[in-house]
From TrEMBL:
Name of the protein described by the UniProt record: Dienelactone hydrolase
Coiled-coil intervals, chain numbering: none
Domain of life: Bacteria
Matching Pfam families: DLH
Domain Dienelactone hydrolase residues, every copy: 31-147
Cited SUPFAM superfamilies: alpha/beta-Hydrolases
Entry keyword set: Hydrolase
Gene Ontology molecular functions: hydrolase activity
Lineage of origin: Bacteria, Bacillati, Actinomycetota, Actinomycetes, Propionibacteriales
InterPro entries: AB_hydrolase_fold, Dienelactn_hydro
Record keyword Transmembrane present: no
Taxonomic source organism: Nocardioides flavus (ex Wang et al. 2016)
Amino acid sequence: MDVLETWTRSEHTADVAGRPATHPVWRKGVGPGVVVVHEMPGLTAGVVRFGEELVAAGYTVLLPHLFGPVGREFSNVDVVRTLPRVCISREFTKIASGVTTPVAGWLRSLARDLHDELGGPGVGALGMCFTGGFALAMMVDETTVAPVVCQPSTPFIGLPGRAADLNLSPADAEAVRRRAADGCAVLGVRYTSDPLVGTRFDTLASLVGDRFIRVDLPGRGHSTVTEQRSQAAVDAVLEFFGQRLHG
């Protein structure tokens, strides 16, 4: 069975690095809006299943497809095939520190359109792994009121300074700090011994202070709400969205 069979497909076009870009978007559910940005290697069946959990909890969920396969189970083969294409794409930052991923503008536009349609206090945004920091970049726009950062893993660790980098430009980092000071909380979820996260949660705690809600799960897993799904992680996300989107 196609895991997206009951979802509605559309497309969204917005600026990315000065050029119009179009990506497919799958939608399902009723209630406040949440944008779930998939991990490497693509919009996997695991990401869709997590989206279904949000739908069942009473949310309108958008699943944008930014790269890689759609609807397949996670596969290391797909990671090997997808990563080189992402690495040469102008839409994403992979190694550079102190910069915001260019596709953030597209995601902000998607969130604004969803909020314009649904109203309410704003929308939720969740990124994971390769896209873990994207929810912070979306938080720059006041439309995003419930950003969730799951196991952020870019820029790739290996060169000095990157293990602590939040994938934000100085201006966007200041916007995140300012929004947090005004009351916008950030939820972060990771496995404590996940080496791909580096020290980014410490950086985030320094940036937003007590507005950072940190969930450190025991163990060496990675994908907190999909492939190594933790019920504690999912429950934390649902509680966070519930408190901030149902007001």
